Amino acid sequence: xxxxxxxxxxxxxEHAYMLKQVVDKRETSIDVVFVKRPSQLRGLDxxxxxxxxxxxxxxxxxxxxxxxxxxxxxxxxxxxxxxxxGAILLAKSVRDRRVGETKQPxxxxxxxxxxxxxxxxxxxxxxxxxxxxxxxxxxxxAVFIRAPAITKTWGEAEPLARLDEAIIMxxxxxxxxxxxxxxxTSDTRIHEYFLYEVARK
Amino acid sequence: xxxxxPSYSYLSSSVRLYEVGFSNxxxxxxxxxxxxxxxxxxxxxxxxxxxxxxxxxxxxxRGTLRVKYGFPVFQKGGVCMDVTNTEQASIAEDAGAASVMxxxxxxxxxxxxxxxxxxxxxxxIQAVMDTVTIPVMAKVRIGHYYEAxxxxxxxxxxxxxxxxxxxxxxxxxINKWLFRIPFVxxxxxxxxxxxxxxxxxxxxxxxxxxxTGNVAEAVRHMKAIMQEIWSLRSMTPEERVRKAREYGVPYxxxxxxxxLGRLPVVNxxxxxxxxxxxxxxxxxxxxxxxxxxxGIFKSKDPAERARAIVLATSMWDDPExxxxxxxxxxxxxxxxxxxxxxxxxxxxxxxxxx
Lengths: 201, 354
Description:
- The complex is a heterodimer of chains A (201) and B (354).
- Chain A is built from five helices and 13 strands.
- Chain A is α/β, with parallel strands linked by helices and 201 residues long.
- Chain A has one domain: Rossmann fold (3-Layer(aba) Sandwich).
- Chain A has a seven-stranded mixed beta sheet.
- In chain A, helix 1 (12-26) links the parallel strand 1 and strand 2 (31-35).
- The longest helix of chain A is centred in the first third of the chain and has 15 residues, at 12-26.
- Helices cover 42% and strands 10% of the residues of chain B.
- In chain B, strands 8-7-6-5-4-3-2-9 form an eight-stranded parallel beta sheet.
- In chain B, strand 6, helix 8 (190-198) and strand 7 (203-206) form a beta-alpha-beta unit.
- The longest helix of chain B is centred in the middle third of the chain and has 18 residues, at 216-233.
- Chain B is globular.
- Chain B starts with 21 loop residues before the first helix and ends in a 27-residue tail after the last helix.
- The chains are: A alpha/beta (201), B alpha/beta (354).
- At the A-B interface, helix 1, helix 2, strand 8 and strand 9 of A face helix 1, strand 1, helix 3, helix 6 and helix 14 of B.
- Strand 8 of chain A pairs antiparallel with strand 1 (61-62) of chain B.
């Protein structure tokens, strides 16, 4: 399996470490590709858009032409997991809790409405154990760093987990979005769900 | 990785990959503090080390280690830009900055004007926080607990305990374990970096020589830190024990650093970065990202330069994009810069707070 990680900015190598853990656990093999240029999208079986600053990732990806090509690849069925900033980039509708409308470049593919900095600032960043039925029983340690929230889904998009009123994980066909950071834990279940349930051929 | 740029060293090609996972690094610091936890149960609170976390978390836990060390992870590959007002902050955000650092005066002006340099106006910091969606950092004087407490109270995302401001304590840094928001500290050697981590810093940056527009000192500090880490890897355990004593840090932290082949926290470059090429150079030497101080808003082309430095930092291993970024700026418009050899010893900022 060839798995890309969008490597323009943010928590890239933490996902590479998680994929290594999945390889050890499942006794399988995964080729990890750090994607920076459009040509590196060729031959991928799945791609992860990591957390970071969605404005930075969007600005750089737009400049190099990667944003448009990635959008086309996902529309053609490339399985994608967007984490935090990745979820923001995937969303069709984005606004900031305090600043309001943002004019940042997006992929704009998923039928979700995302509110940036939903919980507040870094001071309000938190971790909590949540239940995510889609990845199996047992609590999952969800880490929220200046996290966004999914406030609405429509059409084929369906919520997979909630924390109070906010949706924290959602799926729409080949696209998976989480507002928290599974790569900051030692729990590989969400990465496995992505690779073997969402990206399964 | 993409081809096109040979590695600085075979050791630096893997400096961003982790042999020990983020979660295990977090657990390591909790374990290291177990003795402190015992004493804390007896009511002693001014201790060095993180507070213990419950096994199961049912109501949100804020200010935990995972959250404090996690914040800088999402700055990696990005640029934090020094700004002094909301207009500059908006220019930085539009250019793709990963965060902004609010100051009263840019480091270059601190140098030129002299006097005591203190933390920025609270009102200016708050105005910037209301203007941009990206994280907002601010600087406090070394050892100034109350400037830090004020910044935590108004909700700044990260605090830089910085040698650019005038230190209030020449001997001690802030005990950063007492705060719920993460700190970044400067360092010019491995011992200094590990001492700051022992005090609770969640991120390290090279000191360089701020406000000079001369990247030479940042290069020196980054190479020094990397080379000291690589030499740890080839040492025997007993030599590493001696090193830990020399640095004045726990032996286990030296072991972890040797095992990782890099600092256990995010490590940025700072001090004198003025052009896209400077930023890419620091990334090539192994920095996780860069801080740009006077380099952008002391130039005559701040908006283009900000965008160009963001591109070069993210795409540092792609020579065509770096060349394109460098072409976006004009050397005629770069800040003039100061030759470090012309500075008197007492004018050096990097020697503040070892």
